[in-house]
């Protein structure tokens, strides 16, 4: 049985294999395939005028697959159509069968169909209809249902009828031709259709689609739309529900990523859907090009889309939009983001945040309507939006004025497509805005222009492609100094966008309270003032220049450096220049009652060539005019003044080129105060044409210096008169005469006192190039400060054929020179200089020269030849053509008692580029100074020289009295190289002194050795050591001079350390004169700039002040010092200090007044600066005695504590005792020194007569050295005779210094003051009186008395009728101790008889 089944199975397999083999060979037989194709064509396709061709056919029973390869269906060729273009081409058609089901059902059951490489090409005819094969064209139009397609029903039918899966690979359907306007191409890379059940278990179709390289063009849209990529997953069930999952689309219009859910209604138009747009990126250029609108940039959308009630209604969108560099038609929408809602063809947006390329920002909300002229409306907050950006967004490429615009709640609306085609678009803006950082971009030099203040604008703007207009737009500008609010109104303003180049501007405006400093931006000059104006701003289309013209009133103004109180006239400006017409200008200081008026009929000034045209008149005081133009004048003449009797000027030409001027100037001034002189009268009458002046006169009459007027020396008559009858830059026709001109009038120019007189006679005619005439100038008895310069004489005469010779004799014939040049001021010249016993110290004042015995005698002769400095040569500088030589024959220099003589004559050679000097050797008893051969190159700007020093310190006392007997040598060798402006010095300076005696730093420096090295610009103290008394002193460090030679010179960098060990010093100080010191110290001076820092420690081993001087003398000298020394402070002190000073029982004072030893506890710190030093710490006594007046006090305790906040007013704690006969007197002083409490006591406390000792008694004991017999306030009167001289006043009641001081302080209100002690009934008090003598007959006075008795105040007045009778009145208020307060008024007559 088993064998039987095996045989059956083998039979079936063998039969199946045999059948497959048989079918394979049969179907792959060309004869069989041809027969099959022919059968199909004859029976089917030929009847439809089609032709079928087949590449191969195969059937596999193993896989149940039927494959047809290279299947092509073509239209048959006929007489009208010879082409056989493929209508349908298919690379492979594969049908997978279910063999079991097919056998059971006795028919083919298809499991899956695969289509690969399908190409379908269909063209359009001229009417836009598809050209289909005839078999697809019905012979008779079938009756179609009038109802719409019911897609859900269709899906249900297909569910039951379609039992197989379908897969499509690489199918291309092309309708039309690409070069035609009706063309569609769909490239289906892959598609797969399956029947499934969705998530709700409803039968559904599942489709996965991948499209690529597709394109679409339609007759109504003449633009090619490309689809490069589409991939999605679709599920559609039999109820019409669909889900499009992960739709990913990329095209030239947009990129889309979305998920869509919806339902297809029974009527397709009733389909509804919702889409979640994950990303929709729209290319503005391509998308809006479909609407025939220009655009650029990208738009990115994200949000939800929901269909309308049907497919005919617009869907709605709600989400977020972002865009970058977006433009639409003539509008620049910049970059930004916003919340967006699209509904009913309207975009409503909110929270828009827009950024411009130049940092502008717009926050807005509004709406945008599609199709209806694309109307938009929004409310915007604008920040820093450049006006040029706004215009550029409106397709205006150039604007002469730019600014940043800011606004809140600015309403902006308009039409992107205007109904008026010429306008292209329309824009409306209304609201408040602010214009900031306004500037004119045609100004290439923005640096240095003062910013224009912000302008607040009440904006009413309209704009289109034709232009921009403003109507009744108000603006406000706040003055940043006064905070005044200025207002202006643009009555009518228009910016025309239509010119080919740039824009046109025309504005008419009015202003009130305008700060014209805004014009400083345009003028680049100090500008100020408050103006009211009506003006016009317009653009000249010929020159493309903006011009502003205005009728203005300006108050307290300044324009072009001219200050004025009031301006009333018409003026204007542009980038080329400024002009003024018919203006009255009031000038002078505000507080000055008598102001001057400048009538400016015309003023034109061109910025490019500086051409000017001026017509003006002036009256009033000259100083008002000087004050007005002080910006242009030197400080030295700002106080110039005069009475202007007449001043008229008319000028035309290039302002800075006098040779081009036409000038008419008529002026008469009187009582002229000029520099340091007063001139009675000045007349100027200029008549010039093209720089040539004829019939012109300048005269100054009666010139005196202010010093001469003050001294009453007004006898001298002086004048200066010049006549110009043919004078220009070519002609030399002029005459002049100066007589006794006082040189003292020029003192402030030299900033030194100058004296002397000048006489001159000048007569020239002809051409400057062929000059005839002469000039003779003599100055007598010239002195500069305290330097006597002698007499000067200068003569100018024609010489040897078209030459001029200038002879100079100066310094009382010590200097003789002549200069010969061509009359044209160009060409060859000769300079000859002779020095005869020339004193090189002449500029030093006589007192200094005499004090230091400074004198010299130099004899030399030099001659140089070359071209004049005015000669034009582009190749060389004028001095490079000069050559010459000279010789210093002899030289003698005296400093103090030291005399230096020139060893041998000195040769000097100059060849144009450099000066060469021979060895220069000065020698004398003190030593030798030698300069080696020197070369100064002016072309390379280099120097080469050397210096040798060799001095005998033993003769230093010949130089100055500051030195005493010394023994030793000072020598040095240096080389000087490098740049003239930045030389390098190298070498060494050696000091070897057995003794160097400096009188102010005794005792002498013994065995002093020092070496100082110069390296470039750095001085190094490599070795400095000296014995100083019983100790020594050493130093090291460096000074870097590089900062001095830098571009911005500064102080040198210093680092020096000074160490002393038990070094002795004897210093000169006030009062005591000599201070003996022995010091251990370590100090460091360092820093890169002042104040340099001085730090370290000082230990006073000994400080001894010794002088046989009493307390009265000390007090007097202290008082004198306090009144004579002025405390000065420097803004740049030389030192900043932080030095600790130690003194332990080492501070000793010995004098008739005080003897004792003092210490620091534990130290004193000296800080602050050299101009304001500060002391902190405590000084205390170890043992001391004080001889005060007639008493000797033993100081038991004395502490002076210095606190930084109190500076030189220490806290004191002093206790001392003295013996006067049998009495022990104790004095205690406590508290802040300036407000210390003084307590006096005596023991025993009673006098020998039993009277209790009072304070006046104690003062009497101290001042007299005796115990009074009885207690009495009169003792204080006795004490005062000693007390007042002790404190430096003498007698208060007779002190003229006190009177003078009080009179000065009170401005003369009080002219007499007395302070004196008084007694009444044994009680002491002090009385102060002050009086004022108003005339010889009237005297007023007040008195105040205070003391043990209480207080008393009084006032009186006395009027003297004659020598005998006077009227008096008085007021007296008494508040005496233990008495009632009384007030008395008295008046009456006072009679004087005899001496009473």
UniProtKB/TrEMBL annotation:
**Listed transmembrane segments:** 7-27
- Keyword list, A-Z: Membrane, Transmembrane, Transmembrane helix
Q: Which domain of life is it from?
A: Bacteria
Task: Please give the name of this protein.
Answer: Translocation/assembly module TamB
Species the sequence originates in: Fluviispira sanaruensis
């Amino acid at each position: 049985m088993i064998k039987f089944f095996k045989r059956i199975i083998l039979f079936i397999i063998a039969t199946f294999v045999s059948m497959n083999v048989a079918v394979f060979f049969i179907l792959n037989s060309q004869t069989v395939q041809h027969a099959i194709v022919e059968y199909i064509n004859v029976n089917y396709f030929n009847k439809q005028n089609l032709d079928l061709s087949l590449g191969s056919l195969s059937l596999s029973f193993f896989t149940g697959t039927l494959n047809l390869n290279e299947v092509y269906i073509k239209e048959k060729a006929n007489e009208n159509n010879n082409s056989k273009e493929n209508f349908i081409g298919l690379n492979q058609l594969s049908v997978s069968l279910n063999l079991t089901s097919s056998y059971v059902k006795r028919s083919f059951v298809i499991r899956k169909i695969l289509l690969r490489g399908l190409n379908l090409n269909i063209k359009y005819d001229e009417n836009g209809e598809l050209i289909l094969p005839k078999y697809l064209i019905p012979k008779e139009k079938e009756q179609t249902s009038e109802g719409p397609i019911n897609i859900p029903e269709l899906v249900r039918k297909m569910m039951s009828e379609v039992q197989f899966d379908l897969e499509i690979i690489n199918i291309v359907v092309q309708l039309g031709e690409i070069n035609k306007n009706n063309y569609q191409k769909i490239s289906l890379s892959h598609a797969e259709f399956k029947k499934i059940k969705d998530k709700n278990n409803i039968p559904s179709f599942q489709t996965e689609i991948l499209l690529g390289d597709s394109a679409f063009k339609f007759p109504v849209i003449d633009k090619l739309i490309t689809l490069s990529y589409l991939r999605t997953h679709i599920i559609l069930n039999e109820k019409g529900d669909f889900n499009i999952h992960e739709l990913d689309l990329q095209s030239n219009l947009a990129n889309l990523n979305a998920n869509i859910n919806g339902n297809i209604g029974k009527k397709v138009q009733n389909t509804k859907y919702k889409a979640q747009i994950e990303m929709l990126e729209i290319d503005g250029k391509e998308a809006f090009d479909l609407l025939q609108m220009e655009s650029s940039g990208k738009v990115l959308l994200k949000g939800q889309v929901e269909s309308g009630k049907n497919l005919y209604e617009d869907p709605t969108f709600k989400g977020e939009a972002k865009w970058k560099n977006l433009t639409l038609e003539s509008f620049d929408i910049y970059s930004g983001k916003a919340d967006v809602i699209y509904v009913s063809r309207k975009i409503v947006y909110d929270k828009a945040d827009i950024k411009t390329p130049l940092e502008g920002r717009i926050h807005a909300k509004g709406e945008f309507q599609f199709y209806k002229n694309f109307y938009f409306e929004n409310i915007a907050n604008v920040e820093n939006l450049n006006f040029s950006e706004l215009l550029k967004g409106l397709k205006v490429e150039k604007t002469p004025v730019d600014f940043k615009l800011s606004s809140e709640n600015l309403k902006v609306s308009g039409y992107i497509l205007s109904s008026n085609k010429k306008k292209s678009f329309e824009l409306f803006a209304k609201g408040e805005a602010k214009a900031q950082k306004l500037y004119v971009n045609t100004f290439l030099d923005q640096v240095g222009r003062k910013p224009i203040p912000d302008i607040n604008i009440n904006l009413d703007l309209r704009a289109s492609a034709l232009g921009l207009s403003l109507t009744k737009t108000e603006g406000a500008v706040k003055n940043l100094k006064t905070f005044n609010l200025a207002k202006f109104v643009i009555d009518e303003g228009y910016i025309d966008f239509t010119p080919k180049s740039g824009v046109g501007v025309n504005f008419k405006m009015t202003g009130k309270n305008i700060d014209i400093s805004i014009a400083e931006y345009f003028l680049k000059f100090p500008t100020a003032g408050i103006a009211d104006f009506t003006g016009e701003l317009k653009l000249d289309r010929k020159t493309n220049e903006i011009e502003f013209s205005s009728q203005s009133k300006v108050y307290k103004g300044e324009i072009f450096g001219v200050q004025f109180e009031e301006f009333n006239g018409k003026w204007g400006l542009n980038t080329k220049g400024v002009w003024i017409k018919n203006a009255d200008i009031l000038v002078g200081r505000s507080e000055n009652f008598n102001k001057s008026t400048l009538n400016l009929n015309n003023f034109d000034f061109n910025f490019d060539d500086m051409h000017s045209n001026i017509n003006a008149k002036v009256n009033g005081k000259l100083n008002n005019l000087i004050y007005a133009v002080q910006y242009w004048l030197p400080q030295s003449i700002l106080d110039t003044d005069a009475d202007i009797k007449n001043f008229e000027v008319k000028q035309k030409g290039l302002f800075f080129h006098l040779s081009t001027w036409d000038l008419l100037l008529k002026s008469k001034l009187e009582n002229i105060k000029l520099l340091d002189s007063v001139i009675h009268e000045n007349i100027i009458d200029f008549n010039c044409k093209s720089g040539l002046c004829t019939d012109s006169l300048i005269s100054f009459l009666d010139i005196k210096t202010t010093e001469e007027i003050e001294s009453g020396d007004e006898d001298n008559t002086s004048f200066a008169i010049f006549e110009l009858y043919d004078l220009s830059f070519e002609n030399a026709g002029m005459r002049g005469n100066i007589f006794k001109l006082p040189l003292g009038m020029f003192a402030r120019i030299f900033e030194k006192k100058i004296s002397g007189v000048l006489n001159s006679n000048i007569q020239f005619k002809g051409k400057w190039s062929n000059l005839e005439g002469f000039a003779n100038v003599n100055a007598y008895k010239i002195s500069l400060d305290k330097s006597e310069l002698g007499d000067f004489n200068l003569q100018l005469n024609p010489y040897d054929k078209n030459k001029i010779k200038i002879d100079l004799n100066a310094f009382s014939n010590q200097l003789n020179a002549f200069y010969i040049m061509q009359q044209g001021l160009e060409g060859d010249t000769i300079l000859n200089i002779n020095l005869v016993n020339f004193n090189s110290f002449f500029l030093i004042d006589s007192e200094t020269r005499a004090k230091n015995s400074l004198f010299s005698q130099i004899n030399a002769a030099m001659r140089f030849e070359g071209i004049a400095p005015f000669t034009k040569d582009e190749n060389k500088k004028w001095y490079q053509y000069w050559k010459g030589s000279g010789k210093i024959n002899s030289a003698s220099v005296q400093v103090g008692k030291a005399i230096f003589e020139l060893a041998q004559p000195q040769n000097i050679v100059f060849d144009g580029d450099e000066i060469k000097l021979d060895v220069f050797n000065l020698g004398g008893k003190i030593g030798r100074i030698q300069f080696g051969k020197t070369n100064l190159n002016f072309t390379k700007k280099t120097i080469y020289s050397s210096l040798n020093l060799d001095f005998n310190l033993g003769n230093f006392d010949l130089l100055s009295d500051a030195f005493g007997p010394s023994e030793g040598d000072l020598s040095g060798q240096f080389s000087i190289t490098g740049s003239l402006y930045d030389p390098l010095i190298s070498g060494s300076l050696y000091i070897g002194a057995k003794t160097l005696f400096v009188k102010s730093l005794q005792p002498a420096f013994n065995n002093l050795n020092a070496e100082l090295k110069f390296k470039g610009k750095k001085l190094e103290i490599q070795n400095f050591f000296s014995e100083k008394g019983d100790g020594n002193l050493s130093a090291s460090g460096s000074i870097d001079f590089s900062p001095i030679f830098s571009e911005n010179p500064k102080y040198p960098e210093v680092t020096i350390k000074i160490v002393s060990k038990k070094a002795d010093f004897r210093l000169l100080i006030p009062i005591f004169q000599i201070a003996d010191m022995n010091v251990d110290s370590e100090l460091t001076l360092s820093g890169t700039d002042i104040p340099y820092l001085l730090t370290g420690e000082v230990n006073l081993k000994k400080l001894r002040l010794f002088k046989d001087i009493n307390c009265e003398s000390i007090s007097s000298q202290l008082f004198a010092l306090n009144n004579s020394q002025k405390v000065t402070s420097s803004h740049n002190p030389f030192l900043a200090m932080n030095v600790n000073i130690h003194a332990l029982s080492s501070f000793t004072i010995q004098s008739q007044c005080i003897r004792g030893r003092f210490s620091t506890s534990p130290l004193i710190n000296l800080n602050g600066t050299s101009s304001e030093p500060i002391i902190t710490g405590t000084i205390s006594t170890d043992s001391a005695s004080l001889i005060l007046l007639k008493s000797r006090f033993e100081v038991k305790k004395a502490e002076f504590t210095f606190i930084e906040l109190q500076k030189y007013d220490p806290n004191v704690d002093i206790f001392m005792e003295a013996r006067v006969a049998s009495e022990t007197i104790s004095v205690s002083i406590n508290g802040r020194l300036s407000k210390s409490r003084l307590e006096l006591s005596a023991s025993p406390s009673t006098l020998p007569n039993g009277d209790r000792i009072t304070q006046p008694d104690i003062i009497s004991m101290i001042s007299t050295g005796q115990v009074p017999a009885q207690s009495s306030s009169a003792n204080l009167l006795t004490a005062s005779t000693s007390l007042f001289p002790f404190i430096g006043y003498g007698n208060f009641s007779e002190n003229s210094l006190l009177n003078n001081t009080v009179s000065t302080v009170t401005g003369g209100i009080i002219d007499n003051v007395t302070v004196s002690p008084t007694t009444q009934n044994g009680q002491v008090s002090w009385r102060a009186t002050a009086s004022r003598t108003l005339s010889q007959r009237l005297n007023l006075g007040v008195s105040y008395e205070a003391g043990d008795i209480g207080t008393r105040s009084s006032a009186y007045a006395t009027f003297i009728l004659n020598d005998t009778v006077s009227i008096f009145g008085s007021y007296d208020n008494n508040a005496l101790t233990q008495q009632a307060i009384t007030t008395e008024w008295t008046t009456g007559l006072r009679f004087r008889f005899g001496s009473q």
